[in-house]
Amino acid sequence: MVRPSLRSRSFRKLKTRLPGGEMVVRFRKKRDSPARCSGCRAELSGVPRETDAPKTKKRPERPFGGILCPSCSRNLFRERARAISAGSG
Which 8-state DSSP code applies to residue 5? Predict the structure, then answer.
């Protein structure tokens, strides 16, 4: 029987052949899903999949970096600029 900490579904099973020819099952953590834009659900580039990476490595250093894709953030900036200019005029 496998040890209790590895019985979770958060691990995937890998069949590995040992040098003696024996097949064994090893358990590895599943790979994280890629970061997605909260506006259009597109996959974000420049954001690594690791969960244990420090915060500065997880996202681009710009407003809404790691949350919105460049086109969605550009549209948001345009909407805000139009709202500000319409309010003052």
Answer: G
83 Rama class: left (phi>0) / alpha (psi -120 to 50) / beta = alpha
- Whether residue 47 contacts residue 35, with contact meaning beta carbons closer than 8 Å, is answered with yes
Residue 88, H or E segment: helix 70-88
DSSP character for 6?
G
Query: pLDDT tens-digit profile of 16-72?
Result: 999 999 999 999 988 888 989 999 999 998 888 877 777 777 778 888 888 999 999
Enumerate residues 6+ apart whose C-beta is below 8 A from 78.
none
Residue-level pLDDT at 89: 55
